[in-house]
User: What shape does this take?
Amino acid sequence: MEIGHSLAPPPVAVYNRLHFKQFLVSGSFMNGFGMVRARAERNGYDRALAIACLIVLGFTLYCVLPKVVDGTGATGLDFSCFWSAGKMALDGHAATAYDWPRLRQAIIQIHPSLNYAPFPVYEVPIPFFYPPFFLFAAALLALLPFPTAFWIWSTAKLLCWALVVSAIRPRFAVLLLAFAVPAVLYDFIVGQSSLLAASLLGAILLTLDRRPIVSGFLIALLIFKPQYGVLLPLVLIATGRWTVFITASLVTPVLLLLTGLTFGWDTFEGFREAAVFATTQFHLTGTLAWYKLQSVYGVLRFAGFGYGSAMALHVAVAAAAATWTLIIWRRNVSFAVRAASLLVATLLVSPYFAIYDTALLALALIFLMNAPMAEHGSLLSNRSELRIGFGVLVLAGFTYPVALVPVGPFMCATLIAMIWMRCRQPGVKSDLAYG
Assistant: This one.
């Protein structure tokens, strides 16, 4: 009986324990755990980053919501400019929207506090210097009372932002990141148009190859914020995307024609004069504080450089950024890397961009999540890069209103470093364009 018992197979429980010990000793457990972590990293899952986004977003809502509810802080200050311009267009005097003294009187009716400190409206004007095409949106919003129009405008922008971000990277954690960056907060508070323009530029990149006609039509719509599209014609020509280029070239004159017929041809002259006025205020006289300009030009003026030297250096950086972007688009690299390079360079080219325009950098960071990583030879892991990028966008974004210094170029440099590391990794194959 004893001999027969010893030759019998071990019980199932004993066998499972022995197999589990061998599994641990052989290292298969660690290899399997490493494979799971690697797969999760490739899929963009990062619990720590998601938690950090929730904390930042919660802190932002805690600080901002009370001011929005009680009406302090001049919520919708920039939007009041759009709404007042739309009101003038509805009254049949669209060109007067570019007349600053008359526009100022309309804005003060919405925000009476502009007559008093800390809003010296005489020293810091809020002119309407958007192309006349933007009056279509402004007039439509002006059909509604100002508070209702502001909330509809804000909701529409946030919805467009969420849709584009989800199309680029359909992950809930990525959506949290997109809403946690300070640029979204700043755009919402003043009611700016940068978030809408950033969403539009993201949609252009998403449809660039699979929906070229749609992409060209969207480029034509971007004429309401032309500094966002300054590099697009160069990229389209350099990469031979002629369908997109021709579509945009045909649709843009049609939109301008409709604008002139609807609001009058004198609006184009008013826009020209307003653009000259804005250039004088923002680039020459320093009426707008230099720290509010997040461009290379703004940093140099903030540092004490004169107009000539600051603009010359800015043009040199802009030319280098444009050349760098074209080189990347001509290389066999991931489309996500190409898209990110265009978004970052767009901010470096324009001498005038504000803190809310850095939403483009958040979009670039989200595109980089789709860029393939080499298994070996990279300085940092994909997860580490994304954490650093998000950390810089958040810390620099919240440092800006406290330190009152331009932080845009530093944020752009961080994203450029991330793009450079993706481009130099060996063994990374180009992905297919998506859209």
Residues 127 and 270 are 12 Å apart (CA to CA). Confidence is low (pLDDT under 50) at residues 1-10, 12-16, 23-44, 430-435. DSSP finds 21 helices and no strands in the chain. The first helix runs from residue 2 to 7.
